[in-house]
Amino acid sequence: MEPEKKFIAKIILLGDASVGKTSLLNKYIKNEFSLNYKTTIGADFLTKTLTRENSIVNLQIWDTAGSEKFHSIGTGFYRGCEACVLVFDLTNPDSFKNVEEWRKIFIKYANPAEEDKFPFALFCNKNDMANDIKVTEEEIKVYCLGHNNMPYFYVSAKEGDGIDDGFNKVCDIVYKRMLEKEDVILPDIKPIRIQPIPEQKKGCPC
Ligand code: GTP
Ligand code: MG
Known about the structure:
Blueprint (H helix, E strand, L loop, with lengths): L4 E10 L6 H10 L12 E10 L2 E10 L6 H4 L8 E7 L3 H18 L9 E6 L11 H9 L6 E3 L8 H23 L21
Parallel strand pairs: 1-3, 1-4, 4-5, 5-6
Antiparallel strand pairs: 2-3
The protein binds guanosine-5'-triphosphate (GTP) and magnesium ion.
């Protein structure tokens, strides 16, 4: 059966250098992981197709550079996003503190219509490094509750844990929002019946 609707949803990953944005994306889309670190320059995307009800949602997931050197290149890609995934490294408390900076930078450059309703999700990465975790769940909860109850996910690009759950939730949220937007843009338009023009009476003076 043909899907009823097809949506393309642009999603962006933001966070400090080395938190694992590229690794998460590669694990999610290609099921690949490497311990070699090659910093991202600029931005690039990979796609994943998911289905929701009888619709197809094509997630276009953008990976950006966390390094300050490349910030100016990345900000141009923020516009038109349906959701933003903020990423930090559980073993690096500074990367957690900087999540809020990334959220603000995103809002500034993406300039979404309804700022307080814009969907963010938090991916707490490197959860496999159990002995080195330095950010507590309490801190994460407090941050998320204070920011529109942002959903958070413990993930590991190395092991693959939590990544599907995280992106599935993001997909649920953007799908719902896109349906709502569609209702606003395309209201239920009733067909207009065109009445036949009555024949003019003979001898009409006009
Ligand atoms: P930039 O492109 O510079 O912004 O960094 P990034 O956020 O894309 O980080 P990247 O994915 O390149 O990962 C940085 C380093 O962390 C690499 O050496 C990865 O192998 C490692 N890494 C990423 N995710 C995980 C993880 O879940 N567990 C562990 N143990 N290492 C990880
Ligand atoms: Mg990268």
